[in-house]
Design brief:
44% of the residues lie in helices and 9% in strands. It is mainly α. It has two domains: 83 residues, no CATH class; 72 residues, no CATH class. The radius of gyration is 19 Å and the shape is globular. The structure holds zinc ion (2 copies).
Length: 215
């Protein structure tokens, strides 16, 4: 999202951000937002590298030249986000972040085989993990995922799983192999190894796993 500074009184900024997804705020109980000031810095070398690595993966997957893939992806991106034209040589850092996350989401949606882990490519890991949960795509390898509850957020043994209120508990999307591994090592070790953290289950996630919704 791109917002505009509409006021500054010496102590605080007033920022206006066009936003219509009130449902998202409710679903995830969002009360805070991270603000990064666009100080005129342009896309970093690291961001450019990430974008081209992802474009290379998409190119390998679909068989078209990277330059063409980049052209189309930029076109869909600006249409989808109602953004101005974007160039990877001199766009702003914040626009580059959004484009990279758009490419990451595309790779998740289409199970594009990627050379690097997407969690390390994502500019907003939160968004990536949420997207992986919704798409039932393993946050580590992209294979079809099942739900793994975070420690302290577990569904009790011997209780009817369908009767447990899942909404609000925290979870990961993991394939069978990575899910098995998650049960074999301490959670902090697993998180550190794969740079993961759990995401709060909302009704969209619950629906993806057909969990019973109870608040
Ligand atoms: Zn996996
Ligand atoms: Zn589990």
């Amino acid at each position: 999202m791109i917002g505009y500074i509409t006021g500054f009184d010496g102590k605080s900024l007033t920022i206006k951000v066009p936003f219509t997804d009130g449902e998202l705020l409710q679903r995830q109980g969002v009360t805070q937002a991270e603000i990064r000031l666009d100080d005129g810095r342009t896309i970093s070398a690291e961001q450019r590298r990430k974008a081209w690595v992802l474009i290379g993966d998409i190119s390998n997957w679909c068989g078209f030249l990277p330059e063409d893939v980049n052209g189309w992806m930029k076109y869909y991106f600006i249409l989808d986000k109602d953004m101005p034209y974007i160039s990877l040589s001199n766009c702003s850092m914040s626009l580059a972040s959004q484009y990279i996350d758009y490419l990451v989401a595309f790779c998740v949606d289409n199970s594009v085989p990627c050379r690097k882990r997407l969690i390390d490519m994502a500019e907003d890991p939160n968004k990536f993990l949420y997207h992986s949960l919704i798409n039932r795509s393993c946050a580590i390898c992209g294979e079809h995922a099942e739900l793994h509850h975070a420690e302290g957020s577990k569904v009790g043994m011997g209780r009817n799983r369908l009767e447990i209120p899942h909404i609000g508990l925290e979870a990961y999307a993991l394939c069978r192999g990575h899910h098995t591994e998650a049960h074999q090592v301490p959670q902090y070790e697993f998180n550190a190894k794969y740079h993961l953290f759990p995401i709060k289950i909302d009704h969209r996630i619950a629906e993806a796993y057909t969990l019973k919704e109870e608040v």
